[in-house]
Amino acid sequence: MAAHSACDFGGGRAEKLALAKYRQVIWQGRVLNSQLSDEELRNTGRCPLTPEEIGLILVALGFDSTTRFYLASHKVYGGEARISSLRKLFPLMEDKRSLASADELANVEGKASVLAALDYHISMHSDVFISASPGNMHNALLAHRAYRNFKTIRPNMTLLGHIFANKSMEWSEFQQAVQAGHKGRYGQIRLRKPKQSIYTYPAPDCMCQG
């Protein structure tokens, strides 16, 4: 995801070269985003949110350190160094490896589809769900949770791109901007956009009429 986005995650020249090499190996360099600058990508909401950014958004929306937090991910880009800031904000954070026993993990080790299914199941039944960026699992969960009328925070990626680019913003201003920009983005049922796949959003086709 990080490589395909072509965004700058603050790792300097070494990071840029590593991600560019990965894009060349996997997609032979055919990634449209790589033709745009990082500023253009962020201003149009095309960059995945980092763990720290997700944490700041949730705190701005009213979640605190007592919130039980499940991290659904195969591997976070940047590893523990990236996750540590999120863990400080939400010390009750868990993932499948911290929740499962050694024997349980041994039974699914190397089975990527089973591990992804476990993440999906827990994400599906969480009180609130938020995703760092669009993707196949994001789209499926968004649709499934909408069908079940579960609370899902849909990050305003374009707005957040502008907000995080402003390094001089005070916390109170940041909090106000995030809250104002996410009114109506908590999973309220809306009509599916023209040409949007029914598998990514089932309303109104799969909804009962009152």
Keywords:
210 residues, mainly alpha, two-stranded parallel ribbon, 11 helices, 4 strands, globular, GT106_glycosyltransferase
Short description, anyone?
The protein is mainly alpha-helical and 210 residues long.
Give a structural overview.
With 210 residues, this protein is mostly helical. The chain has a domain at 1-47. Helices cover 49% and strands 5% of the residues. The chain has helices spanning 2-5, 12-27, 38-43, 51-60, 80-89, 96-99, 102-108, 112-124, 136-147, 157-165, 171-181; strands spanning 69-70, 93-94, 128-130, 151-153. The mean pLDDT is 87.
Taking the sheet with the most strands, its summary is:
2 strands, parallel
Q: How many helical stretches?
A: 11
Spatial strand sequence of the major β-sheet: 1-2
Computed over alpha carbons, the radius of gyration is 18 Å
How far apart, in Å, are the first and last alpha carbons?
40 Å
- The share of residues in extended strands comes to under 5%
Structural class: mainly alpha
> Would you list the SSEs in sequence order as H and E?
HHHHEHEHHHEHEHH
What is the residue-mean pLDDT, rounded to a whole number? 87
Number of strands: 4
Form type:
globular
Helix content: 40-55%
Low-confidence stretches: none
Keywords: Carbohydrate metabolism, Fucose metabolism, Glycosyltransferase, Transferase
GO biological process, one term: fucose metabolic process
Protein name: O-fucosyltransferase family protein
InterPro entries: GDP-Fuc_O-FucTrfase (IPR019378), GT106_glycosyltransferase (IPR052272)
